[in-house]
Design goal:
Blueprint: E1 4-9, H1 26-35, E2 41-46, E3 62-65, H2 79-92, E4 96-99, H3 101-109, E5 113-116, E6 122-130, E7 143-150, E8 152-156, E9 162-167, E10 170-177, E11 181-184, H4 192-202, H5 208-217, H6 224-240
Helix pairs in contact: 2-3
């Protein structure tokens, strides 16, 4: 099978010395995650944070939207174009993966609802319990512990979407629509070193109890790479359906 052309819509550009200058950006983290799979992809990065959104959804075989410290509840220079892009992908049944901010943006674009958490943050390693499984979610796992870092959450699924997984801090932690949309609130692309760096950089602005719980959770193992396999399966299935 030919290589899948994957477009990565990057909605974050960290310019901090402590984090942004010390680690690869979001697109590179996802490339590392997917390059650990048996299959290989051809990548194109769209700096959506700067207003670059693909005009033609057929430029790539599949797309994904990254996470971001920005809130989908706020208006950004790319918001209107991004939501329109998501809706066009949905109508055309173009394979689209959403992670964290991307997960929330897809929900909003398709008529769902996103709200601020009733606690300040949900941070650390958290297990997603999967109530439902799709064909591409192999190897099958009932739960996956993964990194999380968010202030907002999806509180209402869009019409036509199915709930896949929930976590203690996020009822709608993963959902899908038919075979062309797949999302997660978690960060399968994070490493322990990167998460530790981000937590050190941001902990002064968070309640002490949340910071303590986050550091304690970091002692657990996380299985983001398995979710990465699910994503690769999802993209491959989408290519077969093209």
């Amino acid at each position: 099978m030919r290589r899948i052309k994957l477009g990565i819509l990057q909605t974050n550009h960290d310019k901090s010395v402590e984090v942004g200058d010390a680690y690869p950006d979001d697109a590179h983290r996802f490339r590392d995650l997917f390059d650990a799979q048996d299959d290989r992809f051809e990548y194109r990065v769209y700096m959506t944070i700067g207003g670059h959104v693909p005009r033609d959804i057929d430029e790539q075989d599949a797309f994904m939207i990254t996470g971001s410290p920005l809130s989908v509840l706020d208006e950004h220079i790319f918001t209107e174009d991004l939501l329109d892009f998501i809706r066009r992908c949905d109508v055309a049944k173009k394979p689209l993966l959403g992670v964290c901010f991307g997960h929330q943006a897809i929900a909003v674009a398709l008529g769902g609802k996103v709200e601020r958490l009733n606690v300040a943050y949900n941070v650390g390693i958290e297990e997603t319990l999967f109530h439902d499984h799709t064909e591409w979610m192999t190897p099958k796992r009932e739960t996956l512990p993964m990194y999380v870092f968010h202030e907002d959450q999806v509180t209402q699924l869009p019409t036509g979407c199915r709930l896949l997984g929930s976590s203690k801090g996020c009822k709608i932690a993963s959902f899908a629509k038919d075979e062309h949309i797949f999302t997660t609130q978690s960060h399968p692309e994070f490493s322990h070193d990167f998460m530790s760096c981000v937590l050190r950089f941001t902990e002064s602005g968070m309640p002490e109890n949340i910071v303590k719980a986050a550091w304690n959770s970091m002692e657990k193992d996380q299985h983001g790479r398995i979710f990465g396999t699910w994503c690769a399966n999802f993209f491959k299935k989408g290519l077969r359906n093209v």
